[in-house]
Amino acid sequence: MKLVSDPPIADKIRNMKQRVRWQDPVILERGIDQTRLVLDDGGSDDPEFSFLVVGDSGTGAHRGHNPQRKVAELMLPHHQECRFMLHTGDVIYLVGSKEYYQENFIKPYREFLVGGEHPKRIAYDQMIFQRPILPVPGNHDYYDLPLLFGLVSLTTMPLRRLLRSKLDLDVGWHGSWQGDAYAKAFLDYLKVFMLPGDLARHLDQHYTAKTETGRCLRYEPGHFTRLPNRYYTFCYGGIDFFALDSNTFNDPPPIPTTQEGDAHRKQLEVRRNELEQQKMQLMETAAQLNPDSPKEADQLDDIQHEVSQIEEMIVDIDKQLDTDKIVVTDSEQLEWFKHRLIESWNTADVRGRVVFFHHPPYVTEATKWQQAQTLAVRDRLRDTLNAVARVVGSKTGDRPLVDLVLNGHAHCLEHLETMDASAADSHIHWIVCGGSGYSLRRQRTEGADLMEDQKLVARSHLFIGRNGRGSQKRRPYSCLRIDVTGDRHPKFIIRPLVAEWHQRQWHNYEIQPFTI
Questions:
Q1: Where does residue 409 fall: left (phi above 0), alpha (psi -120 to 50 degrees), or beta otherwise?
Q2: What single-letter DSSP state applies at residue 219?
């Protein structure tokens, strides 16, 4: 029984283009760049500023505690000092359903929203942020329910078994509609402007920021807080930020039809069956537990963690076993990123570069490093950076092409650094910020060093995730404050903010800041 369904990449791209009326004639004739925004808060010229980072947060209350709200409370003392919040994806679990935005996003982050003192009055598709929240979509923000769940009533056995499992899965009744809920919550959903006159007036009101070639969207905190696209860029304090949608370039290549490939396919099929059996056994166990018992509630939380992890592994295997699919790579987005990064290195006023997207190319969380999607994202990002390096050449000096990459997807907080791998993604700092609310994961038993073709390519310097067993189990949920200082060569001071759930109590911890 599959809990989620991941739409084909071609459908994700096509539907998202329709929602923002990509390259509509009315947009083109105004010279509007639909991948750029200007953050109009009066402080974007200040070279020293701070911002927050969260990811994989979109869950409701667990048994007796609400991790996402606790993380939001960690950020509140920094709220006024930080200019914006970056969200690394998975805004809403489990399938990005619109009905969960109220409990899993609006209420936890109410202090960031206009009218947040009355969160129940805020519609998910009409949010306006006091302090900018700038997300990228995660895989769960695109997920839908499998066709079976979408077509049958609640009286069918599979869904009744799911509902009585007592797991806090936040499934919803339909899913994201291939990312539609995310688009309505955060993007400038131009599809609603059906008449050319209405669209023209909207563009002339909100797309007034000047670019080298025309205009782009003006993001006005407290007034108009929409994003122009699922991927976008903005400059703040001389730092170029690039937001990517990795859900459309994470498709694994097909397994070759060779003897070795056939053997690998059979191994994956066996593994998939084993995982399905494990998942059903876990859900049957959950059906027997009492959520009102503290000890059994703790077991339910563990089971939810295992079920979600197994489901993710099944999705990854299904992507590899799909023999009918045509592998799609979002070449348009990757070309856009390549040209914008080249442009950034050719712009004298830009002094640093930060990239953020959902799937981490480098990570030591227990299940991610060997996933086919991780490999696909790493290879395509590396190819893009290599192409940039060939163009910009010696302009980078001894600096990496990108100062910092921020990701989610792995439910932990981790700082890694790539080694000299004879590729343009060498010597980059990577931070995974995916432990802001959903069930946490452990570090892999192989340790902190990541090997590729028997060569050390990256090393983890910090890992904060689920640890301990039994009564000593600890669940440290986390977010980040990042302070940008310095002049032509900026420094990024990383300040982890951690709240740990241990023995049914919250404990806040000070983690030593580090500078990159």
A1: left
A2: E
For the segment 161-194, what is each residue's pLDDT rounded down to a tens digit?
444 455 656 666 678 999 999 999 999 999 887 7
DSSP 52-117: EEE-S-----BTTB-HHHHHHHHHGGGTTT---EEE-S--STTT--GGGHIIIIITTTGGGBTTTT
460 Cβ contact list (under 8 Å, min separation 6): 364, 414, 415, 416, 443, 448, 449, 450
pLDDT over 70 at 248, yes or no: yes
Instruction: Note the CATH architecture for domain 9-253+323-515.
Output: 4-Layer Sandwich (3.60)
Positive or negative, the CA dihedral 452, 456, 461, 467 is: positive
For 26-49, the pLDDT digits (tens) are 999 999 999 999 999 999 999 999
In the structure encoding, which two tokens stand for residue 119, read together? 């969160």
C-beta of residue 56 within 8 angstroms of C-beta of residue 139: no
pTM: 0.94
Q: What is the DSSP letter of 284?
A: H
Give Cα 405 to chain centroid, integer Å: 12
Per-residue model confidence as pLDDT tens digits over 280-303: 999 889 888 888 887 888 888 888
The residue type of 187 is L
Which one-letter amino acid corresponds to residue 55? G
